[in-house]
Specification:
The protein is α/β, with parallel strands linked by helices. 56% of the residues lie in helices and 10% in strands. The chain has a 5-stranded mixed beta sheet with strand order 1-3-2-4-5, with helices on both faces. Helix 1 (5-19) packs across helix 3 (68-78), helix 7 packs antiparallel against helix 8 (177-201) and helix 8 (177-201) runs antiparallel to helix 9. The termini are far apart.
Length: 232
């Protein structure tokens, strides 16, 4: 039986630490208060500022002192000037940390962090959750990658932000009633196909010619659904 996804993420993170022991967390994370573009553990302060500034929030679910992929992203993306310059104008940044050294996270945040992990369905680290300015609506989820750069990750964030509720409404209004309705319908179709695909994967389909055909059909439907959205 395959290991649960959390265990697989844990094993991968520990492997990365062993393979790259020189990596360390590159982030300076505040424990209280919030500033645009600066990492903080204070989700409440960040939420308040996000609402005031009408800016999205990026939640970084991490194991800051043990997770190899987390450390890699800290070094390769979040510590770079290009990312810092972008975030300073665009995002509230919140660290939801699960370190081995329990002194890193103040006691007042530990129960909250565990609750947020459950609320957002986080099964491994790092997981990056992009929220709208209300601090609740999930815009997108992003992950780590060995080849990621500040530029490529910024592009991922921007692509997700295009599909925020506010931006969807803005674009739909600009398109006019008829095209706006068609644009929203195309977006709804993307979600429908993705949900159906995820539901099918959760059944644990075995590798058979029939399931290979189903997989290819899902890929084709998702490609066509996304192309329908980008056509507007």
């Amino acid at each position: 039986m395959p290991a649960p996804s959390f265990i697989r993420h844990l094993a991968a993170g520990l492997f990365m630490v062993a393979a790259f022991p020189q990596l360390s967390s590159a982030l300076d994370v505040a424990k209280d208060g919030a500033q645009v573009g600066k990492w903080t553990m204070d989700f409440d302060a960040a939420s308040k500022l996000a609402a005031e500034k009408k800016l999205p929030m990026l939640l970084n679910f991490t194991g800051s002192d043990w997770c190899g992929w987390c450390k890699l992203m800290d070094e390769a993306v979040y510590s770079k000037k290009e990312w810092e310059d972008y975030a300073a104008k665009s995002l509230l940044l919140v660290t939801i940390d699960f370190p081995q050294d329990k002194t890193i996270v103040p006691e007042k945040y530990k129960t909250r962090n565990s609750r947020m992990q459950q609320d957002f369905g986080v099964e491994g680290y790092p997981t990056y959750v992009l929220l709208d300015s209300d601090g609740k609506t999930v815009i997108g989820r992003l992950g780590a990658g060995r080849e990621k750069t500040p530029e490529s990750f910024i592009a991922e964030v921007e692509k997700s932000l295009q599909l925020s509720p506010a931006n969807i409404e803005k674009k739909a209004a600009a398109l006019g009633p008829e095209k706006g309705a068609a644009f929203k319908a195309a977006l709804a179709n993307v979600k429908t196909v993705e949900d159906e695909f995820k539901a099918w994967l959760q059944t644990g389909p075995k590798r058979t010619p029939e399931n290979d055909t189903k997989f290819e059909a899902f890929q084709k439907r998702m490609k066509e659904a996304n192309e329908a959205v980008t056509a507007f």
